[in-house]
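Posting this for the archive.
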Amino acid sequence: MSVTQTWYMILVPGSLQEVISKDYLRAVKIAEEYRSDNLSAIQKWMQWPESFGWHMLVCDIHDRHQYYNSWVEFKDLSAYFNLFNLKAFDDLFFKHMKFCGSKQTYGEFEVAEVVVTYGDTAPAVLFQSIGTDAIDKFPGFFGNFFIPIENITRELKQYNSLMAKQDRNRLVQRGAEFYNTPCNNNEDYQITKEILNAFPKALQYASKRNCGLLGLVVTAG
């Protein structure tokens, strides 16, 4: 079966910003070691982002990632996509949050937005849609981020500015071509649109509630 990937965007009230910021930075420190060991894979993606899409040659839900673009080595694909779902961020999530449902509250935390995907993480689809600009202009570490209250408005403006320079239909097409839901092209487009909308919606909600925003990719088998 495909692995379930959940991209949570969680409101962080002012009273918890300091502790979450410290724990997030610890997770990033661990993640940066992985990044530094796999810079070649990132650089190859930045040169040929479209070549890193999965090519599904058979419609088999149990083995949907069996085939790859022949001129991109498997180790580069694996190294690059592992950046989106590192265990350090799983650990951060389960340290503070015990729920796994959508739009729930747990103590002082509340889920602003959540996107569930299968196999590929939502941020991986987002990066594939946006292209190389995502590396420099998307906050945090490959979809895992912490944005304090004072930076919410700035990040929303930056994301909207980035999107304004893109052709929306082309963004959706690139994401849908990458996210190969077995035998269901309509779902590819639907989930890509959901992914593109989730981040700005979460930022808007965080601004309304005067909270910071924590984004974490959580993997469940």
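Residues 55-71 have pLDDT under 50 and may be disordered. The first helix runs from residue 17 to 37.
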